[in-house]
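Sharing a chain and its predicted structure for anyone who wants a worked example. Both blocks are below, sequence first, tokens second.
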Amino acid sequence: MDLCLAAVPYAWPWVDLIARFKFQEQVGMSGALATLMLSTPWAEDLLDQADLVLPIPLSAQRLAQRGYNQSWQLARQLCAPKADVHVLLRTRDTPSQRLLPRAERMANLVDAFAVEPFRAAGLRDKRVVLVDDVMTSGASLYTAARVLRQAGVSHISALVLARTEARSPD
């Protein structure tokens, strides 16, 4: 990945707000949260320069549970003309990443993403922005970016709503 921008730290009061958006069917919050993301320095430039804005996809099972993909809702609000939910696919359901350490997160995501085969040729030399709600270890973004890079994407950035702060060693 070439660059990752985060709007806010994943801390109070954002944790509770994001949990409501993500787990309590508060999809109406997507516009306000996207506006917050757009206030991040360089976010507008990143989106202007992008050819595509792609959400991190959910598995079919997780999508059925939640009723919507929160990353897709954000991507649509951020840049509707460039947002595309059909390019990057989730190929299998994986256990929740929330409580896993980084190494297990990476292993959990092996072969979890793919590029839609009929869209792959159109990705060569494109600039893509990946959108996600929360970045903890970066495993999902890294794994998705690797798949896109293999398809020939020339520049991959990420724009996330919140980033877990790095813990300092004791």
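Comments welcome. The first helix runs from residue 14 to 23.
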